[in-house]
Design brief:
mainly alpha; flat; 9 helices
């Protein structure tokens, strides 16, 4: 069985970082409203994308074109990673299939991004944002599987990941994914400030849900000459925004349940401990950023940071879920000893 390959793992880490930078760049394009700064695709103002004159990279064009180039770079890295996995991971067919899935995802993602421009589709814009975050999760899983900490399947493990912990990780991942879909919908429909205050909603616990009450409460909170006054807010926009806030509470509850399961069943397993700590930190930061986005009247950098932190949180939970499921359950005749050493952490694969 092939040994751990440091070069492959290092490349996988670089691939993860490049993908995250691409997501930040895409978030910046949306936050700054530059999604249509380059109105054609796959060309850029009828130039070959890679021959587009730097002298034209100005304003929103710079951000959108840079995003396209970064996407192409990540696509190239994905091709290299897939070929590398196919050549070296013949003993792990599932990892080879995951590499092929990543290659398909990055191709589909590029097409969705292009069609979002040519078709002027908000639905495709939302799908483009969500697919990018799922792709990040796939890169993280491949990086984890190529590390030296991957346990060898031939070596036994004690039960450190009971069904309750695994179920909690799945529920938390699903909850965060739904929240990111709501967030992407909110961003691309212009509903980021549909409720302009926090933690209240138009000064009350519940927001107005009819056009008349929205207009009345907006007039009470803002002067008509105030440039921060929300414009064109509809009940649908308020509904999406409020759903994003309410579901955030559900995410926190799901995270609390997972952490309680982790504290009970897996607190000594460092493969789970470190990403769980990272999860807690990211959730605290994410809640603070969400509030700051409202208080700053949706400052572009804060909005991008909020979106990027959400993507990082989903990727961390994907890693937790992956690791929780990869640790085999001990035979029923062998009692689980949570604090026992884990020799397979030094596995070769």
């Amino acid at each position: 069985m092939p040994s751990y390959r440091p070069a492959l793992h290092a490349f996988a880490i670089a691939w993860v970082c490049a993908t995250f930078i691409l997501i930040v760049a895409g978030g910046t394009v949306t936050s700054r409203g530059h999604g249509m700064a380059v109105p054609d695709w796959p060309t850029s103002y009828e130039y070959n994308m890679f021959l587009f004159p730097p002298s034209m990279w100005k304003g929103g064009i710079f951000w959108e074109h840079t995003h396209r180039l970064l996407g192409s770079f990540v696509g190239l890295l994905t091709i290299v990673m897939t070929v590398w996995l196919l050549a070296t991971q013949k003993h792990r067919s599932w990892l080879r299939r995951l590499g092929i899935a990543a290659l398909i995802m990055v191709g589909v993602q590029g097409i969705i991004g292009g069609l979002r421009v040519t078709e002027l589709s908000i639905v495709l814009a939302i799908l483009h944002g969500v697919t990018a975050q799922l792709f990040l999760c796939v890169t993280v899983l491949i990086a984890a599987a190529t590390s030296k900490w991957w346990p060898a399947p031939s070596r036994s493990r004690l039960c450190t990941s009971p069904p309750a912990l695994r179920a909690a990780s799945i529920i938390l991942f699903t909850a965060i994914l739904i929240q990111l879909i709501l967030g992407a919908t909110m961003r691309h429909t212009g509903a980021g400030l549909a409720i302009p205050d926090f933690p209240t909603s138009y000064g009350k616990p519940l927001p107005p849900m009819t056009q008349k009450t929205i207009d009345n409460r907006t007039a009470q909170m803002f002067d008509y000459d105030d440039p921060a006054m929300p414009q064109g807010v509809t009940p649908a926009m308020v509904g999406v925004h409020f759903a994003h806030r309410v579901w955030a509470v559900g995410v926190i509850v799901a995270a609390g349940w997972f952490v309680s399961r982790f504290a009970r069943h897996g607190a000594t397993e460092r493969l789970l401990a470190r990403p769980t700590i990272a999860l807690i930190v990211l959730l605290v930061v994410q809640v603070c950023l969400g509030a700051m986005v409202i208080w700053s009247m949706r400052h572009p950098e804060l909005a991008t940071a909020h979106q990027a932190t959400g993507a990082a949180t989903l990727a961390v939970v994907a890693l937790i879920m992956f690791r929780a499921h990869m640790l085999p359950v001990a035979p029923a005749t062998e009692p689980a000893r949570i604090g026992a050493p884990s020799p397979s952490l030094q596995g070769r694969d």
